[in-house]
Design goal:
The protein has 308 residues and is mainly α. 83% of the residues lie in helices and 0% in strands.
Length: 308
Amino acid sequence: MKGLASFVMSGRFQALLVALAGAGSLLFCWISAAVVALVTLRKGAAAGGWLLAWALLPAGTLMFVYADSGPLSLLVATAVLALVLRATVNLPLAVLCAVPLGGLAGLALMAFSGEQLQQVASYLGDFLAAIEQQLSQGGEAVVLSRPDAAQVAGMMGAGTAMTAVLCLLLARYWQAALYNPGGFGQEFRALYYPPAITVALALGAVALAAMGPAYRTWAVICVLPLAFVGLALVHARVALRGQGTGWLVGFYIAWLVFDPVKLLVVFAAIADSWFKFRQRWDTRAGSVVERRGDTRRDDAPHEDDEDR
């Protein structure tokens, strides 16, 4: 991936080539979005806007032909997050901006792509019906709830917000790998929100979930920044304890498979806003190092002892 970033930054034509190739693909549009973000972060809004304008051509064609606005929404959302990060040099603020962008993406789908949402809801209903048949072969009938268009819109809005943040983080990683090795890890592990923002996000998610099943997918949009803070907290703990990447791989597998792990990550982020775990860990680690240093100084032989 670093080789791709180096190729993109080697010239304007190379960046345009990768951006156009990715934007015209349903599977690889995230690469195009990350490239636009990288150019924006490194060279500014003008260069990033020029690249975005070209990338929107194949993404717009894809939307016109197949009625799929996902690549276009992802490109625009990622570019906005990159502009925020470029202007403020504040990663928590950039991640937080994904919340209104995800909400706008979902609302735009409801306003302009109602037929597409109904088709997606119908496909999901057929898929769930097939699962019901398989689960009901044991004799006991199983009934799964069917998503409606509003739920699908919230789901797609949350997906756009989450993918845009991931593309931004990838672009930031590329930028650090090329120009500031190790800087991205430090920046991501320090991701933190004060209690006021954490409470606002949590209350927003609870309020949306309480409005009914149709809005529970929309509540996920509010939870996304807290999820990324929780993941940053896990990375900070692993780095502090010197654990290997194998532990992180196991954690992410559990995070993807088990929903309670996702909830624990969010709750850890909420608790961190008050208790500031990373500062406590750093203080304890510093105390341990200091005590070890004192012990080594006391036990170390002195020059006079060696002479004697």
